[in-house]
Write a structure and sequence with these properties.
The protein is built from 24 helices and 30 strands. By secondary structure, the protein is α+β, with helices and mostly antiparallel strands. It has a 6-stranded antiparallel β-sheet with strand order 20-21-30-29-26-27. Strands 2-1-5-4-3 form a 5-stranded antiparallel β-sheet. A 5-stranded antiparallel β-sheet has the order 11-10-14-13-12, sandwiched between helices.
Length: 925
């Protein structure tokens, strides 16, 4: 029963756990369906991916070798749809082929590569390059500078083709052609589904269209055709619900007109029994059964105290086991909740750092604005005042600084702490941006500079709305193969006229590095439990702070590189667990943030809960021990008194009393025991009196000796024997057996002995038997039966006269002959209409042994065989048991019965009376 209770408790706990897991699985399935849905414009998603590929390839020292690796990743994301071309720094084909396997016009590629670099620097494509773009890429491809670094539709349906051209640089460029039989959106969805399958093996997702065989598509989820129709009908009836099947969850999500993503999450059945626990309990039970049968538990059988303690501990162990299982589930839920809270706090901190990147931009702009105002109030000319402020400005950590006049000439050039020259200084980007900025700022002298106001901004055109509308411009710029943060600082005179503009540049990763160096260290020092580290997306060995080490960050970074924006993980290092939270920022794009939080606080909370549980169990055990010991003491004290009383009975100390005055069952038992002791005392008196009835010593009659022994089965018995001397050298002997035991039989034996010694019957065996019949008939109200034999030994004539009444026949053993029975007939005393049979007379010879015995001798059960000793057994062993005297022979016969039966107290009264001839002293001499 306890094991059944434990199994039921486990079953219900498993049901609760499975129900909670069902909710979690449904939430995960809905999340994955949302993850499979691309953004509003799939070209943006593919563009970001290929831009990251471009930065990774051309930032490496060997672009061709890196391309061999990343091309496989591109092919894996868009299987069967991608071709590419990789050009080196001279515009030559390094690897790849053209779209549809067409031959590659190498000369036109070199010409296009050179023209593309010029367009990036601010020029435009000529008519020949535009014709090449439309013929090689597609009729819808752009023919301006926007053809680079973005995915665009080059060829319309029925077979859509999208192309991506990296920015041509001195390291080379590449073309990527994506052919989609359906749409780029479906290709992005298939790509996301493939990545989700790798991350979540237990979930299957498929993309289905209404104009195709939907049932076949459902078959890819593992459904049969019949089940596919039934499941699809259920999904159609409730398109926003998660369908709960016996062994799985199914849901769908619309991502476009007649386009759905259907997912299936396999799960164990809610009602499944906890087989591992049941198997364990069955094994435990099977292991305990043999132990229960073994002698190892003999201690429990010998000690009541041990049995009570074991019973109480067992009673505590069963609910404790069920409670332990409940606590196990509770602790698991608590751990999950605490870890989720830690992750959410870490995510909040990481998102805050990412969002404060914009606030850092604003702080930098205000600082530069204050610097511009200070320069305007300076007494020196603007350029000289700027040179004086340069040492303090250099502490901003920029890579380079150029100061342009209104004509676009460089009048000041310095490298910052970054040590990298501005790559725009060699082209027309920086000077054109400076002239545009001064023109937009309101200078009235730009015409004197000779600048062409109608000249397009080219590379910085896209930034005009974000930079040229503020006194101090600060924003992002992508030029050549570099991503930069630039600031345009006007140098004002006393009349607030801008004669110069400072072009300050930070590389994007350096700008973010400066921000992270400033923000991470103080926050890390303020929190001992949270460790935050930033890793460069292209070089994970480049981390901030460099001294900090976040354990297990490589796995988190790998998952972030796969496209996840937020990652949760847990690692154990050096016996300590850490919760890792990774973030791919929106504003911080060059670094990934990883926060590690020690789980010491979680383990402390769980350890405290475990300690409380163990304390509760310990209290229960102590209470059980105290209760069991107290009960054992209350039980064992009266039991000990009863044991002392039984020992007193064994030692015949019938005056002993238990003396328990309690009103409970033990008190009643003690009173009954004391009453029994009083009865036993009376029986002891009766036994003493009955023993006085037996002759105290053997009787010598001439050359014959008479001796007897009686062993009763209770305090007083129903056997009797007697012998006494008569006149004329004669002796009388008597043996009898009254039916039953106890006081009644003892009283009958006393009556028989009084009748035997009456003078009227003394010396005549037949008269004794007749008198016993008359006395029994006259005095016994209840019918009582008795067997007996009376005999007279005449030592002078060596004759023996025997009269009997249903008693076992005596046995004669004459030396040199086998023992034989002496036939003595007569009916039992107490039988109706019974006449006295004449006495049997026997002539004795010297050395004869005559044995009288009761039925307790021949009916005793032999311990080895389980059969009565019988008359034959007595005949067989009598020659060996005969001693030198009658007393010795009688004692040997009684010992022989005790040894054969294996009982010190016989089951029935047994009596032996022996007549044996003895040698005279002269004969002995």
């Amino acid at each position: 029963m306890p094991f059944l209770l434990v199994a039921l408790g486990l079953h219900f706990l498993e049901r609760e756990r499975a129900a909670a897991q069902l909710v979690e699985d449904a939430r995960r399935l809905e999340y994955l369906l949302a993850e499979a849905e691309p953004g509003s414009d799939p070209t943006i998603e593919v563009t970001r991916f290929l831009q990251a590929v471009e930065q990774r390839v051309f930032a490496a020292s060997a672009p061709v070798e890196v391309w061999a690796q990343v091309s496989g990743e591109i092919q894996e994301r868009f299987p069967g749809r991608v071709t590419w071309l990789l050009l080196d720094g001279r515009g030559e084909v390094a690897t790849g082929e053209g779209p549809d396997g067409r031959p590659v016009p190498r000369a036109l590629l070199r010409r296009f590569f050179a023209a593309g670099r010029a367009v990036v620097a601010g020029g435009e494509f000529a008519a020949g390059e535009r014709s090449f773009i439309r013929s090689f890429l597609g009729p819808f491809a752009r023919t301006d500078r926007r053809v680079f670094r973005q995915v665009q539709l080059a060829q319309p349906a029925p077979r859509e083709r999208y192309v991506y051209l990296s920015q041509p640089t001195a390291r080379g460029m590449f073309f990527v052609f994506i052919d989609t039989p359906d749409s780029l959106q479906e290709a992005c969805v298939q790509d996301r589904i493939a990545r989700l399958h790798r991350r979540y093996p237990g979930v299957r997702l498929v993309l289905l269209r209404a104009d195709r065989a939907t049932i076949q598509g459902m078959g890819r989820l593992g459904f049969s055709p019949k089940a596919s129709r039934r499941v699809w009908a259920a999904l159609t009836a409730a398109p926003t619900e998660v369908l709960r099947l016996p062994r799985s969850l199914v849901a769908r999500r619309a991502i476009g007109p007649e386009l759905w993503v259907v997912g299936r999450q396999r799960r164990p059945g809610v009602a499944d029994p906890p087989l591992p626990w049941l198997i364990g309990l069955a094994g435990l039970l099977a292991g305990m059964l043999p132990l229960g049968w073994s002698s190892r538990f003999a201690l429990l059988e010998r000690s009541v105290r041990t049995s009570l303690v074991a019973a109480f501990l067992y009673a505590v162990a069963v609910p404790s086991l069920i409670l332990a299982l409940a606590v196990r589930v509770f602790l698991a839920e608590q751990r999950a909740a605490l870890e989720d809270r830690v992750h959410r706090e870490a995510e909040k901190a990481l998102v805050t750092w990412d969002q404060q990147m914009l606030a850092d931009h604003h702080r930098l702009r205000r600082r530069l604005e204050r610097l511009a105002i200070r320069l305007g109030f300076a007494r020196h000319p603007p350029l000289e005042a700027f040179r004086r402020e340069w040492p303090s400005l250099r502490r901003l950590g920029m890579d380079s600084c150029l100061v342009f006049d209104r004509a676009g000439r460089v009048v000041f050039e310095e490298e910052g702490r970054g040590g990298q020259r501005n790559r725009l200084s060699g082209g027309r980007g920086a000077d054109r941006l400076a002239r545009a900025y001064l023109r937009f700022y309101g200078s009235r002298s730009t015409a004197a500079s000779g600048a062409d106001d109608s000249e397009p901004l080219g590379e910085v055109e896209a930034l005009s709305s974000g930079l040229l509308d503020k006194p101090v411009a600060l924003g992002f710029l992508e030029a050549d193969d570099q991503r930069s943060v630039i600031a345009l600082l006007p140098l004002l005179d006393a009349a607030w006229q801008a004669w110069y503009v400072a072009f300050i540049r930070w590389s994007r990763d350096r700008f973010e590095e400066l921000y992270l160096r400033q923000e991470l260290r103080p926050r890390r020092r303020g929190s001992t439990a949270l460790r935050v580290q930033a890793f460069h997306v292209l070089d994970p060995t480049r981390r901030l702070p460099a001294s900090a080490v976040v354990p297990g960050a490589s796995a988190v970074l790998a998952r972030l590189a796969e496209g996840q924006s937020l990652v949760r993980s847990r690692v154990v290092r050096g016996g300590e667990g850490f919760l890792l939270t990774g973030l791919r920022g929106v504003n911080i794009t060059c670094f990934s943030l990883v926060a590690a939080t020690s789980d010491r606080s979680i383990r402390a909370v769980l350890d405290e809960l475990r300690a409380r549980f163990l304390g509760a169990v310990l209290v229960l055990v102590l209470i059980s021990l105290a209760t069991s010991l107290s009960l054992a003491r209350s039980f064992l004290r009266p039991v000990g008194r009863l044991t002392e009383g039984l020992q007193a009975i064994r030692e015949r100390r019938f005056e002993h009393r238990i003396g328990i005055a309690a009103a409970d069952e033990f008190g009643g038992l003690a009173r009954l025991f004391d009453s029994m002791m009083e009865s036993l005392a009376d029986l002891e008196v009766a036994r003493t009196i009955q023993e006085q009835f037996f002759p105290p010593a053997p009787l010598r009659c001439g050359r014959w000796e008479i001796a007897g022994v009686c062993r009763t089965a209770s305090r007083v018995g129903g056997d009797v024997f007697d012998h006494f001397a008569l006149a004329d050298d004669r002796a009388f002997l008597f043996i009898g057996d009254v039916t039953g035991h106890g006081i009644g039989a003892a009283l009958v034996t006393a009556l028989a002995k009084a009748t035997v010694r009456h003078p009227a019957t003394m010396g005549r065996p037949e008269a004794v038997i007749a008198a016993l019949r008359e006395v029994m008939r006259a005095t016994a109200r209840v019918r009582q039966l008795m067997t007996c034999q009376a005999a007279v030994l005449d030592a002078t004539t060596a004759t023996l006269a025997i009269a009997g009444a249903g008693h076992p026949w005596p046995m004669l053993w004459r030396r040199g002959q086998a023992p034989r029975l002496l036939e003595v007939h007569g009916k039992i005393v107490g039988a109706r209409f019974a006449a006295v049979e004449p006495a049997t007379r026997l002539a004795l010879e010297a050395g004869d042994v005559v044995v009288f015995y009761s039925d307790g001798v021949i009916e005793a059960i032999e311990a080895k065989t389980g059969r009565p000793l019988g008359v034959a057994g007595l005949q067989r062993h009598l020659p060996d048991l005969a001693g030198p005297t009658a007393g010795a022979t009688a004692a040997r016969l009684v010992d022989w019965v005790r040894v054969c039966s294996g009982r010190d107290i016989p089951e029935d009264d047994l009596t032996v009376l022996v007549i044996q001839g003895v040698a005279s002293p002269e004969e002995l001499r």
